[in-house]
Design goal:
The structure holds two protein chains of two kinds. Chain A is mainly alpha-helical. Among the domains of chain A are: 158 residues, no CATH class; 68 residues, no CATH class. Helices cover 51% and strands 7% of the residues of chain A. In chain A, helix 2 packs antiparallel against helix 13. The radius of gyration of chain A is 25 Å and the shape is globular. Chain A starts with a helix and ends with a strand. By secondary structure, chain B is an alpha/beta fold. Chain B has 13 helices and 14 strands. The chains are: A mainly alpha, B alpha/beta.
Chain lengths: 526, 437
């Protein structure tokens, strides 16, 4: 039995070998154009220069279908619907991509998806070790969500968070300083540096850590008579005190002043670009899987754009000049050459060049999709979205089934699926807490889980077309899962595999859905 | 100050805080007196996590001489080891006291479920922004080298503890397989391992065939490291689907009498499954027993909970012993804390006990732990440690040592932290008095 299992694919491969050799070209053409990606903006020029210095060719442009899928996943955290896909392929206007980008940026899916990303950083979680408590979680999340929906300048929200005082329930921004596993001045300063500077201060010299920590030494917390209410307040200065900013300059805090104000002025100073550089590098990482400097997206050695390569410096400058407009930043990124580049490795490249190309964004990096996005995709396809609830006492939370998983407010509300696919713990707020590595357990779940079998039992979009001819069915299934039409070779292969009659014939579409769900093309951002 | 004086000093302290106070001292003061590491006998560990906190008085530290406000009017019974008595709630376990030992002086300062669970599972105080891995993930990692099974090396029956990530910052590979399902049901469906209904092996193989042939993107992007990892992960997963892994969870393969010996409940059959997992070589198995957080109507709840637990635990110990597996399998049985010695008879508690971490009990058996012994002594109410406090990290450290893991060695981890497996042992020390020679 086992030997047949091993031999069968080999035999089949041998049969198809002549076809496959010819296929190579068409296979690639599904995913990339034959032309290099156009260089349209000064940002693209900077990238082209860095590629040139590294002896990397200008990458090919990704195919229309790939760009359509990629930008939907990147901006809205969802797949395009078959209708959206077909309309896009039919559209012939030259700026159809830009139009699609604007539509997505202004859709409700944008703040839904991006509130998830920012909630990871802001450590929105009701239980151990963050312990915000459910009511505070909702207040905090709502603040973030509304700020993103209204596209408020980002410096406004974050200045607000840094300088907040008040009740965790009534002043949602006060939760920023509560969302810390370690609330000592040292612990708070680490969190602030991670969030606002995109730096890990553990690696700083001890005296620099002490200098930063001094800005938080007057933060206090107190309980009230209301259950789990907590007030964040500042112990006022009684005498002038001199502190040192991370750039080395000294500031004097007068009695009655808040030490944090001086820090905020520095962080949002357009000459320093501390917050701008951190946000640009982190956001870039969200789109590409690693930061502009090649790191984790929140590991700049020092605050500010100095450690970023040229394209990063330019993008930081632009974000700062755009008035910290987050949508505009995302727009600049998805219109850039790196984002529109092919994800396929160039033919005949040495492995070390492959790595360099991904590292320098001359090839779009492959990444397994985020847990919540996958859960939403499966929910939408199957018509059976996951339901979530929390029994952390007071108040119990039951999330409506219709609500997208990316909108889950609370890092403590989870499921086996989300845990398995690496949803971040939100314990520390670092981008490396999210785990997009593929594992045998994940593949086992996708192969064989009863939960998934029950969900995918009758996919509405597929069930509706069960009476149609095979080619129409294949088109539909491919649009649903891959946002593209099947290639002639794929159609040919599937026609051959299509059983003539009986139970197997009836189950064929289900088999195909299983195959597509378990494929690289479905599970990866590419 | 010699070791005896140390212990005397400790008798007056009852919390981990007190123990930890001395833990910061240089080890050299008494390290030369510490025994060399024991022979690593344990191949597998079964953790019976009595979730919610089992009462020390109604399990292994009964106080028949105390007033009814403390013992609720319940008695102690003799065991098959002269001098050791346990609560009358555990008559079956009383017949096997030669095979296990009791620790009556587990102690730490945390009365909240989350923090206490974290401490008991990781040996570390919460805070500091890092979530450390639980003992199960650590043992799974160290034992993975010599483990060739298809089932993941850390299995939890049947529900997760939740509340904190058991794998902490270790590689996901060591995160537990949580079975879900119900082993006492007609069919024990372990999600992902036991194939769901309706799909034959042949049909599944056809799907795998089509998956390989249709891999259009995979072929176009061939050569990418990430896709190689994807294919490797698939090979491992397919082995589980197509191999014999599912048989371990097929309890119909056990004789009816054996199933009944463990009790035909979810808990009983979870214990039986744990034994089957030990036979399959799985290094770490947790059984999460629920329903022990008895704030209200404690004694009524104990009557049903304890009977089920008594049957399952005694069956597991005696069954492993009969199969010659007890010597290579550690069983440790405890919760995150014990319960308040003084009963709260008033409404709404109606005879309840609350959280109590200062003095509680733990049962250990097998894998190099001697049987028939008692460690530590509590006061007349089971409220305070009188002699020989045992801290969570010393409990965990003892299990590690018997598994051949050096608790003072480095904890390898993917994020580059330079940390030992456990914080330094407390002055009272690991459970060397229980190590078999």
């Amino acid at each position: 039995m086992r030997s047949i299992t091993v031999l069968l694919p080999l035999l089949l491969a041998a049969l198809f070998l002549p076809v496959q050799a010819a296929e190579g070209k068409t296979e690639r053409s599904l995913f990339e154009k034959e032309t290099p990606v156009p260089l349209r903006t000064p940002l693209d020029q900077r990238f082209a220069e860095s590629w040139h210095h590294a002896s990397l060719a200008i990458p090919r442009e990704a195919s229309d279908a790939v760009q359509l899928r990629r930008v939907h996943l990147a901006l809205a955290g969802r797949l395009p619907t078959p209708q959206e896909a077909e309309a896009y392929f039919r559209d012939t206007v030259p700026d159809k991509y830009e139009k699609m980008v604007d539509r997505l940026l202004n859709s409700p899916d944008f703040p839904a998806f991006w509130s998830m990303k920012w909630a990871d950083v802001l450590r929105i979680k009701s239980e151990f070790p963050i312990n915000l408590w459910p009511n505070a979680v909702y207040a905090y999340h709502r603040l973030l969500y509304h700020s993103l929906s209204r596209n408020e300048p980002m410096d406004r929200l974050f200045r607000h968070l840094l300088l907040a005082t008040g009740s965790n329930f009534r002043d949602p921004e006060a939760n920023f300083l509560r969302a810390a596993a370690d609330r000592t001045p040292r612990g708070l300063s680490r969190n602030i540096a991670l969030t606002l500077f995109g730096c890990r201060t553990e690696q700083w010299p001890e005296k620099d850590q002490q200098a930063l920590e001094a800005f938080f030494s007057q933060i206090r917390y107190k309980k009230t008579w209301e259950w789990k209410e907590e007030i964040v307040f500042v112990q006022p200065e009684t005498a002038p005190v001199s502190l040192t900013l991370p750039n080395g300059s000294a500031v004097t805090i007068q009695p009655g002043e808040d030490r944090r104000t001086a820090l905020a002025d520095y962080v949002f100073d357009p000459r320093e670009q501390v917050f701008a550089a951190a946000t640009v590098n982190r956001t870039w990482c969200w789109f590409f899987g690693h930061g502009l400097n090649g790191g984790s997206g929140d590991d700049l050695p020092r605050p500010g754009p100095d450690a970023l390569p040229e394209p990063g410096k330019l993008l930081t400058q632009q974000f700062s000049e755009d008035g910290y407009d987050f949508r505009e930043l995302c727009r600049r990124i998805v219109l850039s050459a790196p984002f529109r580049a092919s994800a396929l490795p160039r033919e005949n490249l040495e492995p070390q060049h492959l790595e360099k190309a991904e590292h320098m964004f001359a090839q779009f990096p492959l990444r397994r999709l985020d847990a919540e996005v996958l859960d939403d995709m499966i929910g939408t396809l199957s018509g059976n979205p996951s339901s979530y609830s929390s029994v952390i006492p007071e108040p119990f939370s039951f999330i409506p089934k219709e609500e997208r998983t990316v909108l889950l407010t609370d890092g403590s509300i989870s499921s086996r699926f989300l845990g398995l696919f690496g949803r971040p713990s939100r314990d520390g707020g670092g981008l490396d807490e999210r785990n997009n590595r593929i594992s045998a357990e994940q593949r086992l779940y996708l192969f064989n889980s009863g939960e998934l079998y029950r969900k995918m039992g009758r996919i509405p979009g597929v069930w509706k077309i069960r009476g149609r001819a095979l080619p129409a069915q294949l088109d539909r299934v491919y649009l649903l899962f891959y946002s593209r039409y099947p290639s002639p070779e794929e159609k040919q292969l599937l026609r051959r595999a299509y059983p003539a009659e009986g139970k197997e014939k009836a189950r064929f579409l289900q088999d195909l859905c299983w195959v597509l769900l378990n494929s690289k093309e479905f599970l990866y951002q590419h | 100050m010699n070791r005896r004086d140390f212990l005397k000093t400790f008798a007056t302290f009852s919390t981990l805080g007190a123990v930890a106070h001395f833990a910061g001292r240089p080890l050299s003061a008494w390290a030369e007196k510490a025994a060399p590491p024991p022979r690593p006998r344990a191949k597998s560990v079964i953790e019976v996590w009595v979730w919610g906190g089992p009462s020390q008085l109604e399990t292994f530290d009964p106080k028949p001489g105390a007033p009814r406000d403390y013992n609720g009017g319940f008695k102690a019974i003799p065991t098959n080891v002269p001098g050791i008595e346990i609560s009358e709630f555990f008559p079956l376990l009383a017949q096997h006291a030669d095979k296990y030992s009791l620790i009556r002086t587990m102690t730490h300062p945390h009365p909240g479920h989350e923090t206490a669970t974290y401490l008991m599972q990781t040996g570390r105080n919460p805070g500091g922004g890092r979530v450390f891995p639980a003992i199960g993930a650590v043992i799974a990692m160290f034992k993975a080298e010599n483990y060739r099974g298809d089932i993941p090396p850390y299995v939890i029956l049947t529900v997760p503890k939740g509340r904190f990530s058991e794998v902490g910052f270790l590689n996901e590979r060591y995160s537990p397989l949580v079975t879900g399902g119900n082993p006492a049901a007609e069919k024990f469906i372990v999600d992902g391992i036991v194939p769901p209904g309706g799909l034959s092996r042949e049909a599944l193989q056809k799907r795998f065939g089509l998956l390989e042939q249709l891999d259009t993107f995979g072929r176009a992007a061939a050569g990418m490291e990430e896709l190689k990892r994807f294919d490797e992960a698939g090979i491992g997963a397919r082995r589980v689907v197509e191999g014999d892994a599912a048989k371990v969870f097929d309890l119909a393969l056990e004789p009816k009498a054996m199933r009944e010996r463990y009790g035909m409940t979810t808990l009983g059959q979870s214990f039986l499954t744990a034994r089957r997992l030990v036979e399959a070589g799985v290094p770490y198995i947790t059984i999460n027993a629920q329903g022990w957080d008895t704030h209200k109507r404690h004694f009524e709840t104990m009557k049903t909970k304890a009977a089920e637990m008594d049957k399952a635990t005694s069956a597991l110990i005696s069954d492993l012993h009969e199969r010659g597996l007890l010597d290579s399998t550690i069983i440790w049985w405890t919760g995150e804390f014990g319960r308040t010695p003084k009963v709260d008879w008033d409404a709404p508690w109606n005879g309840g006990r609350n959280h109590y971490p200062h003095c509680f009990s733990c049962l250990v058996a097998g894998g190099g732990f001697a049987g028939g012994k008692v460690v530590g002594e509590s006061d007349e109410f089971a409220a305070k440690v009188v002699s020989r406090p045992v801290s969570p990290q010393d409990m965990l450290g003892s299990i590690y040592e018997l598994c051949g893991i050096d608790p003072d060695g480095k904890l390898p981890n993917p994020i580059g932290l330079d940390v030992p497996v456990l914080p330094p042992e407390s002055a009272a020390g690991r459970l060397r008095e229980l190590y078999r020679s």
